[in-house]
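User: I'm putting together a small comparison set for a docking exercise, and I want a reference complex before I start. The sequence is below, and the ligand is tricarbonodiimidic diamide. Could you produce the 3D structure with the ligand included, as structure tokens?
Assistant: Of course. I'll restate your input first, then give the structure tokens for the complex.
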Amino acid sequence: MATVRAEPYEFAFEPGQVALVIIDMQRDFVDPGGFGEALGNDVSLLRRAIAPTARVLAAARQAGMLVIHTREGHRPDLADLPPAKKARGHLKTGIGDAGPMGRILVRGEYGHDIIDELRPRAGEPVVDKPGKGAFYATDLDAILRSRDVAKLIVCGVTTEVCVNTTVREANDRGYDCLVLADCVASYFPEFQRVALEMIKAQGGIFGWVGESADLLAALAPGKETTRPAA
Ligand code: TIU
């Protein structure tokens, strides 16, 4: 059993029964010229999560942990794009339209894919999702249950949108989620702070919040206990 210092209290897991879930680290959100920027956001705020997430990804692979990547996006014919989602924001350039990295949030396009720094390896499931939550209209729940995974370590973007929605969906399905604060990011610093507060409030109403350094310490070879509190 590994234990990670976290709030509201330590997060314990068997490395074989936990999955690392990396949410939507796609060029469309993280790179200039994508959907995130089309929404008026400064994408540089998201890029700070890349390096710590890459370290967690390497450690998870080393530990033999199940790694799952998600991507938000739609079929090229946009048949799974709700008209309300397409219309929202009255954007000049929105989902399905041509952007500098291909059609925005459309599967198969360059911008829809995961950034090079966190590229999935063969054998790591990539879950394509049409919504903000990774459980809605996907096979994520089936993938996790078939492997007896009931605990998730969550990284990705954005903290208050797809990360929070996914954690809430997971919580209602009986999963325990540890969100790594330095491996998730928001275009809005205030939302980053509050979204993490919401998860861990009331005794962990939706889950746990920790730091990647504490997870890495727990996963280090031969390390099976929590790092002592500072
Ligand atoms: N706009 C925003 O903050 N996020 C999204 O649209 N999708 C995800 O968070 N992945």
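The radius of gyration is 17 Å. The chain is about 35% helix and 20% strand.
User: Thanks, that's exactly what I needed.
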